[in-house]
Amino acid sequence: MGRSSIDLYSADVGAPFVDITKFDAFVGGCPTNVAVAAARQGLRTALVTGLGPDPVGDFLEKFLLKERVDMNFSPRKPGKRTSAVVLGIEPPDRFPLVYYREGCADIELTIDDVQAAPLSDTRALLISGTGLSREPSRSATMFAAEQARAHGAIVYLDIDFRADQWHDPRAFGVVIRSTLPWIDVVIGSEEEIKASAVTEASQVVIEHSQISDPKIDGDLKSAIETVLTAGSGSLVLKQGQEGATVYLPDGEVIEAAPFQVEVLNILGAGDAFAGGLISARTRGLDWYQSLRTANANGAIVVTKSGCANFMPTEKETHAFIQSQGGF
After folding, report:
1. Could you give the strand order of the β-sheet that contains 5-10, starting from the edge strand earlier in sequence?
2. Are 53 and 78 within 8 A, CB to CB?
3. C-beta of residue 46 within 8 angstroms of C-beta of residue 72
4. How far is residue 308 CA from its own chain's centroid?
């Protein structure tokens, strides 16, 4: 559940943004990317997003239906637009990104839209931080998490911190922490986890942290502990080329090594990671195998030039893992 967009990616790979001459059109938006990733990994998947009554909405819907993502619960919002993203690609580490979300349709999702969705038949729900950035989507997203949890679903939160979508980064932390009681698994990068924990108190490192991981700094330990304390779930730390780690409620820490690939574009890799993680956990894989599957999905997508359009299938992910020596 959450944002969707048309993504216009520079077709002039390596060119500075001001020198771009053409773009490729793809489908994007964190939850939308995850929906496609999960569907390609073999899960029966539905998307709850808002689309404008416009050709861009038609573009997204056509692609998602082709991917067998159920779009029956993604309403068109009169007077609103399907959102857009424009991206430059300057590997290995510059990917300038511009959002066009003024009056966007997905932030207009309501509690009524959630009530129309099949949450009672859902095994897993993914929500994202951007969906919590404004009303009415904020209340609708929290309601969805609450209802899904009540029906026994595993609720995942992709922190998805986009600073320019919030009026104050402290508000981001407050809203995220208020949602955590309904979350089973939090997924985020170091920056996102720290942003989720920003309070006056958490600016100071907790001296007696219960997190015993020598590979992370004190600020991150404090942030992880803040997030875990605010909810009752697990926290998955995405570490890119360093792999991934899950911190479980009982204090256990499980690490999974990365796969080494040549990076073309990092955008969408985190969503591929989340889709791989959710599909693996839903199929019953243990945490280590699930993290490795997620790492494999992310590694495959960073070698591509887009997001949803390049999510790997379950067969492709399995073949990639086997080619790299297996789990």
Report:
1. 23-28, 5-10, 83-87, 97-100
2. yes
3. yes
4. 12
Confidence of residue 267 (pLDDT cuts 50, 70, 90): confident
pLDDT higher than threshold 50 for residue 327: yes
Residue 83 tokens read as 């959102």
3-state SS assignment for residue 90: strand
Q: Could you count the other beta carbons within 10 Å of the beta carbon of residue 251?
A: 10
Strands 154-158 and 185-189: parallel
- Taking residue 59's Cβ as centre, other Cβ atoms within 10 Å add up to 16
The amino acid sitting at 77 is K
From CA 159, how far away is CA 153, in angstroms rounded?
19
First to last CA, the chain: 30
Half-sphere exposure of 142 (CA within 13 A, CB side): 14
Cis geometry, peptide bond prior to residue 92 (ω within 30 degrees of 0):
yes
Question: How many percent of the chain have pLDDT more than 70?
Answer: 95
* Model confidence band, residue 209 (pLDDT cutoffs 50, 70, 90): very low
- Average pLDDT, stretch 234-257? 96
Q: Which pLDDT belongs to residue 169? A: 79
Two tokens at 57? 């909405």
Q: What is the pLDDT of residues 93-121, one digit of tens each?
A: 899 999 999 999 999 999 999 999 999 99
| 220: DSSP letter | H
* Ordered DSSP codes for 104-136: BSGGG--HHHHHTS-GGG-SEEEEEGGGGSSTT
Q: How far apart are CA 11 and CA 250, in angstroms?
A: 47
Q: Between the CA atoms of 15, 20, 26 and 30, what dihedral angle is there, to the nearest 10 degrees?
A: 70
Give the pair of three-digit tokens for residue 53.
Answer: 């009554």
Residue 296 has φ and ψ, to the nearest 5°, of -65, -45
- Residue with token string 């994007």: 28
